């Protein structure tokens, strides 16, 4: 608790800082690297806890650009890296993502303890593996406002030439029963999520839901138009969509 209070005091040092980097301990004693991005002002702000992918760390383009756009919309963002990713030597995700769920819950606790965060408007978000962890965190914590699932893992191809089969029940158990808002964004050439299978999942959801499908693969890359700023434009479309959806769903 003393360590957490020290971190909170450090975060309060500059209310107008664009980004604040801190290290926080998990209950098991591992260390999480966190970047907290705040809009100008004292808040309290709607806040997104943004989890990385398995190897897609918090400073890579899709997460950084989405965080920047959220802040422009007046929404605070806590990005972080998995403890296994920053360990020496680098590790791997735990079985059933139990340690990663603890990592993200630790960042949620850090956020809701900050007076600049509106604890009634905290979102669980993540990319790929992070989207599954975010779902588990959201499912277990009824105080969270909603979820953002970027490049969700919804299908796999079991043999060469076979059609993809749905696996979203493993990564997002009971998601069809959720009633809080859910926001999805994926690339139409993502090998880990067939667009028709994702559309089928959307049809079964009970929650208010928004879905963006853009060109690209699991990192929103691999676009047919490679020249110019195609990737930046793609990531900006994703960031705009997420920021506006979260802002809209967070309004009273």
For this entry, give a set of tags.
252 residues, alpha/beta, two-stranded antiparallel ribbon, 23% strand, globular
Could you explain the architecture of this structure?
This protein is an alpha/beta fold. The protein has eight helices and ten strands. Helices cover 35% and strands 23% of the residues. The protein has an eight-stranded mixed sheet with strand order 1-2-4-3-5-6-9-10, sandwiched between helices. Helix 2 (61-72) packs across helix 8 and helix 4 (98-112) packs across helix 5 (129-140). Mean pLDDT is 92; it is low at 5-16.
Secondary-structure blueprint:
Layout: H1 2-11, E1 19-25, E2 31-37, E3 45-51, H2 61-72, E4 76-80, H3 83-86, H4 98-112, E5 117-127, H5 129-140, E6 146-150, E7 155-156, E8 165-166, H6 168-171, E9 182-187, H7 195-204, E10 209-214, H8 230-250
Parallel strand pairs: 3-4, 3-5, 5-6, 6-9, 9-10
Antiparallel strand pairs: 1-2, 2-4, 7-8
Helix pairs in contact: 2-8, 4-5
The number of helices is 8
Strand tally is: 10
Radius of gyration: 17 Å
The helical percent reads: 25-40%
Average pLDDT, rounded to a whole number, is 92
Based on Cα principal axes, name the global outline. globular
Can you give me a brief rundown of this structure?
This protein is of the alpha/beta class and 252 residues long.
């Amino acid at each position: 608790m003393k360590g957490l209070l020290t971190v909170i005091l450090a975060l309060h040092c500059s209310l107008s800082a664009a980004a604040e980097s801190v290290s926080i301990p998990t209950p098991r004693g591992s260390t999480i690297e966190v970047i907290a991005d705040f809009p100008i002002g004292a808040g309290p702000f709607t806040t997104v806890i943004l989890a990385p992918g398995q190897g897609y760390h918090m400073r890579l383009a899709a997460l950084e650009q989405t965080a920047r756009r959220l802040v422009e919309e007046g929404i605070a963002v806590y990005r972080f890296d998995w403890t296994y990713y920053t360990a020496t030597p680098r590790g791997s995700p735990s079985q059933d993502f139990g340690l990663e769920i603890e990592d993200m819950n630790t960042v949620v606790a850090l956020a809701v303890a900050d007076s600049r965060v509106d604890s009634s408007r905290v979102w669980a978000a993540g990319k790929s593996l992070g989207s599954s962890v975010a779902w588990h965190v959201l499912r277990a914590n009824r105080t969270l406002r909603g979820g953002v699932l970027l490049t969700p893992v919804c299908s796999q191809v079991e043999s060469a030439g076979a059609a993809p089969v749905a696996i979203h029940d493993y990564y997002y158990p009971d998601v069809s029963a959720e009633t809080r808002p859910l926001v999805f964004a994926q690339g139409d050439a993502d090998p880990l999520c067939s667009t028709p299978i994702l559309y089928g999942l959307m049809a079964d959801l009970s929650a208010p839901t928004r879905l963006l499908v853009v060109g690209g693969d699991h990192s929103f890359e691999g676009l047919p138009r490679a020249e110019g700023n195609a990737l930046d434009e793609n990531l900006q479309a994703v960031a705009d969509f997420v920021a506006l959806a979260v802002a809209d769903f967070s309004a009273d």
